[in-house]
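Observation: inputs received (chain + zinc ion).
Thought: call the complex predictor directly.
Action: predict_structure
Action Input:
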Amino acid sequence: MLFKKPLKITGINWPGALFLTLTPPAAIVLTTIHLMREGFVWQIWLMAAVFYSMTASSITGGYHRYFAHRTYEARPWLKWYWSLFGAMAFQNSIFIWARDHRVHHRFVDTDSDPYSINKGFFYAHFGWMLILEEPTVDMGPYGRDLERDKIVMFQHKHYVLIASLMCFALPTLLGWMMGSWLGGLAIAGFLRLVVLHHMTFFVNSWCHYFGRQTYTDTNTAKDSFLMAVATFGEGYHNFHHIFANDYRNGIRWYHWDPTKWMIQLFRLMGGAYNLRITPQNDIIRMQLQMDERRLKTRLQPDWHDQLEARITELKTQVEAAHVRWEKLREEYKKLAADYAEDARHRLDELKEQLRLARSEFKAALRQWREFNSTMMMQPVRA
Ligand SMILES: [Zn+2]
Ligand SMILES: [Zn+2]
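Observation:
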């Protein structure tokens, strides 16, 4: 459903409503005037692209994966960086953003979820920011640690000033230095802001509406590659809702998750450390469970014990093969770390076993997937 009247509206959130409804027409008008008067100035567009990347990743890697979920630890300079460029995205202070987001995870899809998709696509996208609602949860406990963080509270206290300077004054000033203050304000200020706003809002709307439930169907979060591309990697939202402590959203090396790469880059620069990841075994287990549940729902009318036995057998094979592979990998890593000449033979042996275990796991997974897709294509009889 696209619209659903939310309950318990107590008023209009005027600052939010005016800002969110006036910035898009302002962006269009200013961009048009700039283009008509000054044409295409490539330096301005380049600046907008750079600021877009910096602000988008400060929301995803800073506001979201650091302040809201603490998926890694950060040095003060990195926290300042996230605070300044996060403010440039004009999505409220870290304190408010991260607290709302934690409540979203805790109460997802219920009336207490600040952007529940069950109140409609547009409500989850940005309707929730236009209105005031009777609170259903005590937000206090969700922001205690943030209240103790001096950088977070400084940003919160001076938020409007910092955000205005970063979001509008800085691009205008740089634009003026490049020969077009209007271009700076229109393209790197307003246009960048409006596009970024709606790309971020898609995580709350689109990613709870369209896509695949890879790991769980106990909430509405979905994995969507398209949205991963649009949102700096936040599109693997089904994974994120179940493994929110993981600094990655796209877990495979080829999953499009620039936020993950950005955090890795900050680790190399010394700003981020103790990056948290979910044990691979847990991820595989959840994925197999979800495949099984989907299969059983699909096959409901034809269900019989023989199939149950086959499913259990294949699933156990995948899990066991993966556990074996992980164990060998650990052993190999340990032995290689305190390398001694006499361990050389054992290391070679382990390497060979590792190769075998890996291909056994891949084969078991392939078998499981083939079985799954064949069964999912069976006609369902009522
Ligand atoms: Zn969500
Ligand atoms: Zn989250």
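Thought: report the result.
Final Answer: The chain has a mean pLDDT of 92. The longest strand covers residues 9-12.
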